[in-house]
Design a protein that fits this description.
Helices cover 48% and strands 12% of the residues. By secondary structure, the chain is an alpha+beta fold.
């Protein structure tokens, strides 16, 4: 293959018909502060923050093919190279506050718990599989006609039309909560993303962080780590948090069961930008829907 950045690579980049929009300086500043650069294939801002930081980009919708890659060379040195490749991740969570809080849910070990529940619940697995299909259809529909032909001739159809959220092949596999949450904030159509949204609203990220801190304190007291050593992988969420997480997931599944399914056929247009709450550290900043919160409260009472 030709090396990225070569004259041939530049010629390849010109094969992509789509061209990126020009973003307002305030969006460029916010996106760059969060992820270090504005990706060449940033299609639009799909969701924005609310609260004190209202209006900042929370989720980017990405064009399914990129012609340029931003390469981090370390020490703040980043350069862009011409390189055409498929981009299966349609929605990218860029709000730093939300990213950090979702990471707390992952760090405490809730990803394997949620994934096990999906695999043991055929109805939930079927719902999620359908939502993966809708994600793929939306992604394929975003391509310009010329770029759809480029994808077909380059052998990218499998990655762009037949994979789900963030390019996942197995619809019952949870790659990460961030990808599902970005999909939910942009479209409202992801049961795992809905669960993440509700979990943040109900304080589970704060509980997860507190659990991680308690583990760190125990390790320090036992002499197992230095005072500034990072917290290692969690042995798993505490039983109370596990119970709350599973009950909330069932409630989100029940709520989703009463909504019409999104079409698998590619839509003509993408989602309108939504508002995404941007909670401050130490506060929830989000609101669980009444139906889900009531179900969880009644179950755990």
């Amino acid at each position: 293959p030709r090396p990225p950045g070569s004259p041939a690579g530049l010629a390849d980049a010109m094969r992509v018909a789509w061209r990126p929009p020009v973003y307002p300086a305030v969006d460029v500043e916010a996106i760059t502060a969060s992820i270090g650069h504005v990706p060449w294939n940033a299609f639009s801002v799909a969701a924005r923050t609310e609260g004190e930081d209202a209006g900042k980009p929370a989720v980017l919708e990405m064009y399914p093919i990129t012609a340029k890659l931003s390469v981090n060379k370390g020490a703040g040195n980043r350069r862009t190279v011409d390189h055409v490749q498929p981009w299966p991740t349609l929605f990218w969570l860029v709000c730093p506050v939300l990213k950090a809080r979702v990471s707390n849910l992952e760090a405490v070990g809730l990803v394997p718990l949620v994934q096990a529940q999906i695999k043991s619940d055929p109805a939930l697995g079927s719902l999620l599989s359908h939502q993966h299909g809708a994600y793929a259809a939306w992604r394929w529909s975003r391509l310009e006609d010329e770029d759809r032909q480029l994808a077909l001739s380059s052998g990218w159809e499998e990655r762009l039309l037949h994979t789900g959220v963030a390019g996942m092949v197995d619809p019952c596999h949870v790659k990460c909560f961030h990808a599902h949450y970005a999909h939910f904030l942009a479209t409202g159509d992801n049961v795992i993303g809905h669960w993440v949204h509700q979990a943040l609203a109900l304080g589970m990220a704060d509980a997860a962080l507190e659990h991680q801190r308690e583990l760190q304190d125990l390790r320090q007291q036992a002499g197992a780590g230095r005072a500034k050593a990072p917290v290692g992988p969690s042995p798993g969420p505490p039983p109370e948090l596990q119970e709350r997480a599973l009950q909330l997931l069932r409630a989100c599944e029940e709520e989703a069961a009463h909504k019409p399914l999104s079409p698998i056929d590619p839509p003509d247009a993408g989602p309108a930008p939504r508002q995404a709450q941007s909670p401050k550290a130490g506060t929830t900043g989000l609101h669980a829907t009444a139906a889900t919160a009531a179900t969880v409260a009644a179950t755990l009472a």
